[in-house]
Amino acid sequence: MRIGLTGGIGSGKSTVASMLVEHGAALIDTDAIARAIAQPHGAAMPAIEAAFGSTVVSADGGLDRARMREIVFSDAQAKQRLEAILHPLIGREAERLAGQAGAAPIVFDVPLLVESKRWRRLVDRVLVVDASEATQLARVVARSAWTPAAVQAVIAQQASRSARRAAADAVIFNEALTLESLAREVHALWVHWIALPPAA
Known about the structure:
Blueprint: E1 2-7, H1 13-22, E2 26-29, H2 30-37, H3 45-52, H4 65-74, H5 76-98, E3 106-109, H6 113-116, H7 118-122, E4 125-130, H8 133-143, H9 148-157, H10 161-166, E5 170-173, H11 179-195
Helix pairs in contact: 2-5, 3-5, 4-5, 8-9
């Protein structure tokens, strides 16, 4: 079973991912892969520097994430150029890790699953963790140093809630759930999906 897990920033997707791991899933976090390949000497850095110049390279040779965020949020073509570099590398590393998972169900944590299209073909089921934009904003501001405007910019760049829900095989509406209630929903879904064969 290959499960694609997605949700907007501040939706609680990472918490759900951790709960799925507790049930026995192998987690492949594409954000973590993206960070790794943009570290100093990372596989993506030569192509990123060639495409965007040295201003996006930090002093240690890794990606200057704040600078790159400014660029892609103000230029849709720049965002596409960056994704054209990152996505194939992320995809190859994700499949390599999946090959090491053995028989365990695999959860691919993919923030841009709906936007990238290709991921839907690579997973058996899609699980969306959903929350209102107001809740997303409040959660991210509370846990980080981001301004509300910065969080809103990220939300605007991501797929709409309706687009994510339309792509889902299941949705967890994580708006006012306690951790215990969220865990119960994850458990029920795990039992249901793992007990049934993947959709044709």
